[in-house]
């Protein structure tokens, strides 16, 4: 039976055992989570009744939770501990929450942890931290072949999600501006600053999607990437055919990638996103608890007439039901959400 409310797909969590305090600002390698307001930090740690209450207020039926990628999650034992804690935390509200496993950056270790979480704890996918320079996160040089094989075998998606900024990066973000601007810039613009099409272009040109045609990747924060499609196509057209994959880039873009609405703040941006990728490849996300929004935007989109009723329902929950296994390929739900 289909849900009547959206399923939110990029909703954040942090392990309560993480040490967070103002002292982190002096630690060059620590995640700058101390920049977040105290109420937001409390919500990040909570996967109980308080989050369920907020979920209802946001007009959601279910949240897909994942740990914010930080340097500590590059370590396999830490990922295992964090994933076990998240599983224990959501067991009492399994009808409201599902989880994606945070994965280490080593491909073989990531594959093992994904297999463990999916087979033993029924997680619905995995998350790898993404960072351009490769320090503490996935870079273009990482060998993730074992992870892609495992994701295809278990038919679960992998989400590419930006690493949270660390102390050593704050000076670049600060750049002599008043202290009051550092927190909003670091927590809301760092993603756009850090994101680049180079990672997916590298994956494409490495023939990953020729070897794994059923691999499904979620871009948690597409940012400006959809608007760069014409430029990407122009660049790829200059590469000799013998150095390119068999599948065309647009074929891969339309069949192997999913984009979320986490970076959509108004109806105009939503329309732009919907014009750049098929409707069945878009997932609703509210970016909770960093931003508690989305309900009004989705209601505005539904009333705009831009999408047919069936298209709106696909974006709101139908695509997530199919991608995460809440609904089978014949359109039959695996239980009421």
Care to describe what's here?
The protein has helices spanning 38-45, 49-57, 76-90, 107-121, 145-154, 170-174, 179-194, 198-205, 208-211, 229-236, 249-256, 267-276, 295-304, 309-323, and strands at 7-13, 62-67, 97-99, 101-103, 126-130, 158-162, 217-219, 257-260, 282-283. With 337 residues, it is of the alpha/beta class. The chain has one domain: Metal-dependent hydrolases (TIM Barrel, Alpha-Beta Barrel). A six-stranded parallel β-sheet has the order 4-5-6-7-8-9. A three-stranded parallel β-sheet has the order 1-2-3. Helix 5 (145-154) links the parallel strand 5 (126-130) and strand 6. The longest helix has 16 residues, at 179-194. Residues 329-337 have low confidence and may be disordered. One of its GO terms (molecular function) is carboxy-lyase activity. InterPro entries: ACMSD, Amidohydro-rel, Metal_Hydrolase. Residues 76-326 form the Amidohydrolase-related domain. This is Amidohydrolase-related domain-containing protein.
- What would CATH call the class? Alpha Beta
CATH superfamily: Metal-dependent hydrolases
Can you tell me the overall shape? globular
- The name of the CATH architecture is Alpha-Beta Barrel
Q: What letter string, H or E per element, gives the SSE order?
A: EHHEHEEHEHEHHHHEHHEHEHH
Distance between the ends:
8 Å
Indicate the mean pLDDT.
86
Uncertain segments = 329-337
Organism: Ampelomyces quisqualis
Keywords: Decarboxylase, Lyase
Domain Amidohydrolase-related: 76-326
Pfam families: Amidohydro_2
